[in-house]
Structures are given as C-alpha cells and as structure tokens.
Design brief:
- By secondary structure, the protein is an alpha/beta fold.
- 65% of the residues lie in helices and 11% in strands.
- It has a seven-stranded mixed beta sheet, sandwiched between helices.
- Helix 13 links the parallel strand 5 and strand 6.
C-alpha cells in the first residue's frame, strides 16, 4: 500500500519537476520518494533477514536526507554538503558493522543517527522561517519522526540488550508502536512538503508577473492596477526619470546603464511607498494620503540622494541626476489623472535644466519648479 502511494507521488512530483526545470527541491523530493518506494517493496518481500537490514540501511537514511534537502531548498537554502557527507559516512559505518556481523543494536546506531541528523538539518532550517500552518505542520511531523530515531538509540540496548536480533524486536509493542507512528506521519509530511513547494512556485510566478525583471519594483501594469484599486481619499504621485540616460549607455555600455537603473530604483524603493517602472528609465511613486508639498519634499530628498550616488565604472566627474514631477489629487478624484499632471510637471523640470523637482500648481493651471521652504530667521 505505502509502496503504491510513494510510487504514485514519485511519478506526480517527477512530472511537475519536468515542467519546473529550475525547481531543484522537486528533484530531491523525487529521489526521496523513489528511495521510499524501493524500501516499501523490499519490506513487503523480505522476511526480517539481512536483506531487509541491508535495504533499510541503504535506502532509509538517503530517503530522509533527500527529503530534508528538499525542505532546505524550499525555504530558500542550498544543499548542505557537510550534512550530506556526514550522513553518507554514517551509512557506510552501518554497512561495515553489518558486514562484520556486529550485534544489531550496535549496527543500527549509525543508521538511526544518520536519519535523525538528516531530519534535524531540515528541522533547524525550517524552524528559522516558518510561514503559515503548512510549515508548522510539516515541522511538527519532522520533529516527531526524528525523535523516533533518536529514542531507539538508548532504548534498544536498555530494553532488549546488545545481543538481540531485529526479528525479536519487530513483534514487540514498542517497535510496532514506533513504526505505526512513523507510517502515519510520513505520507502527510510528503504531502505537506509538496504543498509548500507548489505554493512557493505559484508565489514566485505571481511575483514575476507583477515585478519588473530588472529592478524588482512593480511593473507598469501592476503599478497602474494598484493605483486604480486605491480608495479615492486624495494623495499625490511623483513621476521621475534619469537625466541624460542615453549618454550613460553610449559612454559606458548597456550593462552599466542597467546597473544605474537598478541603483535609481533602489533609491526610490527605500521610501516604502509603491514604486513602478513605467518604461526605460522612467518611474513613478504613489503616495496616497500625502499632500503635494510632502511629495515634493520627498522628491527633493530622492533627487539629492541619487545625485550623490556614484558608480565605479563611471568617470569620477560624472554626476548622476534625475528630474521629478509632482502632482496631487483630491478626495474622489482618480489618481491616474494626477499621474498625467505629474508627467507634465516632469517635462517642466527637464525644460528648466533637469536635476530638479517641479510641482504641478495646486489649481491645475501650470507646473512650477518647486523650491524647498526656507528656514525663518530667528
């Protein structure tokens, strides 16, 4: 029964893996399921002899190791080669003890430790960043299964002595209870991990569809949708772009130009407001609930910050700069209209010499170059 379940899951996950070529967590999961399938088949045919011990030693630790590595990768980590190497060494140690016919209790200790270590690595990594009930349920299942392996190490010799054979341990209520708990928890763990991986894939694809591939800020479509969904309670928008960007590309190459665009996007994104790349080197910032003067003050801070920025590939005397257009919108007004006015103000800023902030007049008559308020003398 378990062999059929694992084999079906292996085929299912393998099919998903073919479609998701960059998702290596699925590859580790397929390997874990294949090990589990083979182990279940051997258990159904073996008669509690050395062949069963050999199969368990060769297949069970790798199954949990692959499962644990899939957990690591699904949470943003990478393969932990030290854990992999240690687990392999422990399996080899168990095989050597089996070859010299060491007592079962002694031979099985490296095997149990390899399984617990493999699961423990995934448990530690998952516990650092659990997200939602799926992660917590998976973490709980893994902790219980790892505990089953750990308790066997001291309790086998304490309960049965060192010279006992596995055929004598197998019928006991103790071992049957441990095996039952493991059998009940392993399939849910597989389904939970698969759900976690698939949810991660869906989230990644959704983010890719919403984000600009170069800068990571919202793309134009998503930005405009966010603006349209905002309650009509008034606010402001900033429209901006990099000055003389074509000169940067022509002089230093498109690679440096892309890095300058990313630098500018990072400066804008640091504000915490919604930022969208509208095309090329043009960006917009959405500030619901803020006045035009507040937005203009923020734009001036951004302008100075970017103007002070440098790039190692550019000449020391080459100063980056950007121009900003600001407009507000009142309660009940569509924010998109303010974006059009901010675009008009941006052209005014460029016409006045660039590297400055222009504010569309509050009454919608003409855009004017914005000046920071002067401190009043005491």
């Amino acid at each position: 029964m378990h062999a059929c379940v694992f084999a079906t899951l292996a085929l299912l996950v393998g099919a998903i893996r073919i479609g998701m070529r960059s998702e290596s967590a699925l590859s580790w999961m397929v390997a874990a399921l294949l090990c589990g399938t083979t182990e279940m088949l051997v258990l159904s045919l073996a008669q509690h002899g050395e062949s069963e011990l050999l199969a368990a030693t060769l297949l069970v630790p790798p199954a949990y190791l692959c499962f644990s590595q899939a957990v690591r990768i699904s949470t943003g980590g990478k393969q932990h080669w030290r854990v992999i190497g240690t687990s392999i060494a422990l399996v080899i140690c168990s095989l050597a003890l089996l070859a010299v016919r060491a007592p079962f209790v002694v031979m099985t200790m490296p095997f149990q430790l390899a399984c617990a270590l493999s699961l423990g690595d995934g448990i530690v990594h998952l516990s650092r960043r659990p997200q939602g009930w799926v992660d917590r349920a998976l973490l709980g299942c893994m902790v219980v299964i790892a505990t089953l392996f750990l308790v066997r190490m001291p309790l086998y010799p304490a309960l049965f002595g060192l010279g006992v054979h596995y055929a004598e341990i197998m019928p006991t209520a103790f071992e049957r209870g441990l095996l039952l708990v493991s059998a009940l928890l392993t399939p849910p763990s597989v389904f939970l991990l698969l759900a976690k991986i698939i949810a991660g894939i869906i989230t990644e694809y959704r983010l890719r569809s919403e984000r600009d591939h170069l800068t990571g800020v919202l793309n134009r479509q998503t930005f405009e949708q966010a603006v349209r969904r905002e309650p009509l309670r008034g606010g402001a928008v900033i429209y901006c772009d990099i000055d003389h960007f074509k000169r940067v590309n022509d002089r230093y190459g498109h690679h440096v130009g892309d890095e300058v665009i990313r630098l500018f996007a990072d400066v804008l994104a640091a504000t915490g407001f919604k930022v969208g790349r509208l095309g090329g080197e043009e960006f917009a910032i959405f500030l619901p609930g803020n006045s035009a003067n507040d937005a203009a003050g923020l734009a001036e801070v951004l302008r100075m910050h970017f103007h002070a920025s440098t790039h190692e590939a550019m000449a020391p005397d080459h100063r980056l700069s950007a121009s900003f257009g600001v407009a507000d919108y009142g309660p009940g007004e569509v924010p998109g209209e303010a974006l059009i006015r901010a675009d008009v103000a941006l052209y005014r800023a460029k016409g006045e010499g660039r590297n400055r902030v222009a504010l569309f007049h509050a009454f919608g008559l003409v855009p004017v170059v914005w000046q920071p308020p002067r401190a009043v003398a005491a």
